[in-house]
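Example for tutorial group B:
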């Protein structure tokens, strides 16, 4: 039995950890995106500013996440309305009050942005009585576009490993039980 528990613990340690969709870390980073893309620096980003606002966005974890600050003070601008246009597509962002970012998760919009290359984006931002247009270019490297399409494949690899560990463990438990029955008899 101890061996079976040890094998299960080994499997749990070997399984990659994945955050729930939309999960955020302490610095506002999205935890549900592929770690390899973040580590290699291939996360598609857009940065732009005007006299009023500064905008930084990244495409990862199944969304385009955008942070907006006041240009002069670097103070986060919260609770506004953000719309993004790319070619003939438009998407409206949802504001995450817990982190202070604006997230676009429209599948059709994200699919168009995931193609490698440079994508000219037009952001329309409104907060209080102020509104501004910000233009920026999202640069999607080939590596990031390739990783974006295979997130689901990597997420479930451990299901294939489960029988490889569970079957030998069950056979070992069965053999041990037979061995204890023979000793008792």
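The residue assignment follows.
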């Amino acid at each position: 039995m101890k061996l079976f528990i040890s094998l299960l613990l080994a499997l749990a340690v070997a399984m990659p950890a994945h955050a729930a969709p939309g999960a955020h870390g302490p610095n506002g980073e999205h935890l549900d995106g592929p770690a390899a893309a973040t580590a290699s620096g291939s996360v598609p980003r857009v940065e732009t500013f005007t006299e009023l606002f500064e905008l930084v966005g990244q495409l990862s974890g199944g969304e385009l996440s955008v942070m907006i600050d006041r240009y002069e003070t670097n103070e986060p601008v919260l609770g506004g309305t953000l719309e993004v246009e790319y070619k003939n597509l438009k998407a409206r962002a949802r504001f995450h009050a817990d982190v202070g970012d604006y997230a676009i998760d429209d599948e059709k919009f994200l699919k168009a942005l995931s193609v490698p290359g440079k994508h000219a984006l037009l952001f329309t931002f409104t907060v209080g009585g102020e509104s501004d247009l910000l233009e920026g270019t999202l640069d999607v490297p080939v590596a990031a576009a390739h990783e974006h399409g295979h997130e689901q494949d990597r997420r479930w690899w451990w299901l294939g490993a489960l029988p490889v560990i569970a079957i030998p463990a069950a056979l070992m438990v069965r053999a041990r039980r037979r061995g204890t029955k023979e000793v008792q008899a």
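The beta strands are 45-49, 53-60, 63-70, 81-86, 89-92, 94-96, 101-104, 117-127, 130-140. Compare this with the pattern of hydrophobic and polar residues in the output above.
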